[in-house]
Design brief:
19% strand, globular, single chain, alpha/beta, carbohydrate metabolism, seven-stranded mixed sheet
């Protein structure tokens, strides 16, 4: 199968979807195409004009289908391969991006487009923070065994917090929702006609540990109407059926392309479809970083840190540790920073009239600490290690002499400090980080990469592709199609990375140690949330009064 066969990887991102055609034998990327979402991210209003509240972020299912209709056939054409030479297709999705549907998969937004809660809630929908707080408080008080697997707190981004918000703010929509399903699994359903759940999103975003979800008793104590919520998730054991829904292992065969999906994509009916995956997890295979201790930081609008390990530990503030969550047979850890590239974009869009390239050029000329600033990277809240999306950004040290490039550099450094906090938390918990591998769009900025190497005091390896999620999904497709026996085998043949691409400078690293100490002081001072929560509450009241 490997000699003259190809697979397609489709990466469903925050603003667009990308398809890439990959040769099975060696991972060569032969053609790609991008489709920009027509609705992008709905944060202010719905298409029907209804206004959204603070911290909302929604998407349109039709945009995802349009990626299949446009990007996939365009990528195949660009690759110059015949559709019948394609043996598999794999997908990855932002997570937790979750949606209410009917039992047949029909999105509720098709039925009631003027109801905000009927639309899919994007990963960065943070309006469920109060619901996450209640879940965490109750779980801690009851001593729920699953809570330490998530660093002591679950996120407002995840299935249960968003589901509780749905129940309490739109009970009629909650009642109509026969399924509460990750977009990663919904798109596979549309491709195959077979409903399944991938073990990755079920574990990290669905609080599924040791074969079960949080108990009905626990959910009823949150809200009596929430007791039956797990029924909307419709998941059984790995390989089993529960209500006709299978919990599927990564790299597995989810089903085969239906006639309808074949018409969308231009691929032959019956092509193998891989089990769905999370966009931040797929690049591990693309970088051939699927062994214990290889931490992959996927750096884009946000950063997700994922790492396989042969050790199980309770790491404070992690997004989760899930058996088989990255590759079968190992524990998979996930941590993250809710905003990274988004911070730089916010600054340039609102204050940095010189643009990214010019600000980077100016910032790069400064000595470490020359701007006199330190910032907290919480402009999108804190995912790890505080798990509080009601926190906000802080910049300390500005004077009348502070220039735009000073702030820009301080913001870049703040995200590197946040990454160091995560690495140190892993290692203090007994989970060693052997290699720091970078993937994602921010690789294009060498200055930023060098700052990370200096702040982390360790070399950076970099992925050998600028399409890590799509390539990773293609590698999973090759396994699902039977071209390789395992994800590890396929990653070794098709993945690629450059080791020690950036090496820390000892003098700069010493200087950053002093700044990082000040970051830690700020982190601990503002991390209790008292001031930042109060400011957010005042803002929200001003918008709702």
């Amino acid at each position: 199968m490997n000699a003259n066969t190809y697979v397609v990887g489709v990466d469903f991102g925050t603003l667009s979807g990308r398809a890439v055609v990959v040769r099975v034998s060696d991972g060569a990327e032969l053609g790609s195409a991008v489709h920009e979402y027509a609705h992008r991210v709905m944060e202010q209003t719905l298409p029907t004009g209804e206004r959204l509240g603070p911290d909302w972020a929604l998407q349109s299912p039709q945009d995802w289908i349009d990626v299949l209709r446009t990007a996939v056939p365009e990528a195949v054409a660009a690759a110059g391969v015949r559709p019948e030479e394609v043996v598999g297709i794999g997908t990855d999705f932002t997570a937790c991006t979750v949606m209410p549907t009917r039992a047949d998969g029909t999105p509720l937004s098709d039925e009631t487009p003027g109801e905000p809660h009927a639309w899919p809630k994007l990963w960065k929908h943070h309006a469920a923070q109060p619901h996450a707080d209640r879940i965490n408080e109750l779980a801690a008080r009851r001593g729920e065994s699953w809570l330490p697997r998530y660093g002591g707190k679950i996120s407002s981004e995840w299935e249960f917090a968003k589901g509780l918000q749905l129940l309490e703010e739109a009970p009629e929509v909650y009642a109509r929702a026969e399924r509460w399903i990750e977009a990663a699994d919904w798109i596979i359903w549309q491709l195959t006609g077979v409903e399944s759940r991938n073990i990755c999103t079920v574990g990290y975003k669905g609080v599924f540990q040791d074969g079960s979800y949080p108990s009905e008793e626990f959910l009823a104590e949150l809200n009596p109407g929430f007791a039956g919520f797990v029924g909307k998730l419709a998941t059984g054991q790995v390989g089993d059926d529960a209500g006709g829904v299978r919990l599927a292992a990564l790299g597995g065969l989810a089903g085969r392309l239906t006639a309808r999906a074949a018409a969308w994509t231009g691929l032959p009916e019956g092509v193998a479809v891989a089990v769905g995956n999370v966009d931040a997890h797929a690049p591990a295979a693309a970088a051939d970083a699927v062994r214990p201790g290889q931490l992959v930081a996927i750096m884009g609008t946000s950063t997700c840190h994922i790492m396989p390990s042969d050790q199980l530990a309770e790491v404070p503030g992690m997004c989760g540790v899930v058996r088989d969550g990255i590759v079968p047979g190992l524990w998979g850890y996930e941590a993250g920073q809710s905003a990274v590239g988004d911070i730089f974009a916010w600054y340039v869009d609102n204050f940095g009239t010189d643009g990214h390239e010019r600000l980077t050029e100016l910032a790069e000329k400064q000595p470490v600490g020359g701007h006199g600033l330190v910032a907290l990277d919480w402009f999108g809240g804190n995912r790890s290690v505080l798990v509080d999306h009601n926190l906000s950004g802080v910049i300390v040290g500005q004077t009348l002499q502070t220039r735009p490039e000073d702030v820009y550099r301080a913001l870049i450094e703040s995200t590197a400090y946040g990454a160091r906090m995560i690495v140190e938390t892993f290692e203090k918990s007994g989970v060693p980080v052997e290699e720091f591998v970078v993937a994602g769009g921010l690789l294009k900025n060498p200055f930023l990469m060098q700052v990370y190497a200096d702040v982390l005091r360790r070399p950076l390896s970099v992925i050998g592709s600028d399409q890590g999620p799509a390539l990773g999904s293609a590698i999973h497709a090759a396994v699902a199609a039977g071209a390789y026996a395992s994800i590890e085998e396929a990653a070794a043949a098709m993945g690629k990375r450059t080791e020690n691409a950036y090496v820390p400078d000892e003098a700069r690293a010493d200087a950053y140690d002093r700044l990082y100490a000040e970051y830690r002081r700020l982190h601990d001072f503002f991390g209790d949330g008292k001031m930042l929560h109060a400011l957010r509450a005042i803002r929200n009241e001003a918008h709702t009064s």
